[in-house]
Amino acid sequence: FGIAVAATPTSAALSYDVPRIHPYTDFILVMTYDLHSSWNSFTGIHGAMYVGPHDLTPIQQELNVYTCINWWINQGAPRSKIIMGLPSYGRSFTLTNTNQNGVNALSSGPGIPGEYSGESGYLTFMEICQRVNQRGWTRVWEITQRVPYAFSGNQWVGYDDIEAISYKLDYIIRENLGGSMWWSLESDDFRNLCGHGSFPLIRLAQTVMQG
């Protein structure tokens, strides 16, 4: 029996009595994604691994994978039951000022829908890697948070790529967590449009998790 749960400490503390519920579960799927999105008026990487230099308030300092996973551990959830969520998509924004294009830049709303996904504020990894590899978008590695973002003109997206997923998989193994889960299968580059093979993110996780 498994449960999918909110990741952030403030939300999870209101929703779950972890010491009482974890004995009745076989695994706990922690949804460590969508930590930022266009509901904010500023850009943010929705699956950031760590606190960033721009995260100043207590709430902002919760919005990263490391803090979320550690809260669940500290509440008594066994490491072996914790399944860490990995995203194969990004959350996109429309920049207010194209000259301000970093993390925490002002945003006027969600990004333009992708040609496949068709949803404002959302791009699949397949759509993102095409933009970066073939359409001239600028990729920036956010070294503190261990995740990338990319931008072009007034369009901005925070996401996970092969480098970010590799780091997260190493973290899962290092911390003896139960494994990883994805949202979602069809968001990966299943057509091999970017040259890393079909399903490059998910296949990487499969390879690493199987040792």
Q: What's the N-to-C terminus distance? A: 25 Å
- DSSP helical segment count: 6
Radius of gyration: 17 Å
Structural class: alpha/beta
Which segments are poorly predicted (pLDDT under 50) over 5 or more consecutive residues?
none
Q: Give the overall average pLDDT.
A: 97
* Secondary structure tally: strands: 10
Residue share in β-strands: 15-25%
Order of helices and strands: EHHEHEEEEHEEEHEH
Note the main attributes of this structure.
211 residues, alpha/beta, four-stranded parallel β-sheet, globular
Tell me what the structure shows.
The protein is α/β, with parallel strands linked by helices and 211 residues long. The chain has six helices and ten strands, in the order βααβαββββαβββαβα. The protein has helices at residues 9-15, 18-21, 65-74, 125-134, 162-174, 200-209, and strands spanning 2-5, 27-30, 82-87, 89-95, 107-110, 122-124, 138-142, 147-152, 155-158, 179-183. Strands 4, 5, 6, 7, 8 and 9 form a six-stranded antiparallel sheet that branches. The chain has a four-stranded parallel sheet with strand order 1-2-3-10, covered by helices on one side. Strand 2 (27-30), helix 3 (65-74) and strand 3 form a beta-alpha-beta unit. The longest helix is centred in the last third of the chain and has 13 residues, at 162-174. The radius of gyration is 17 Å and the shape is globular. The model has no long low-confidence stretch (mean pLDDT 97).
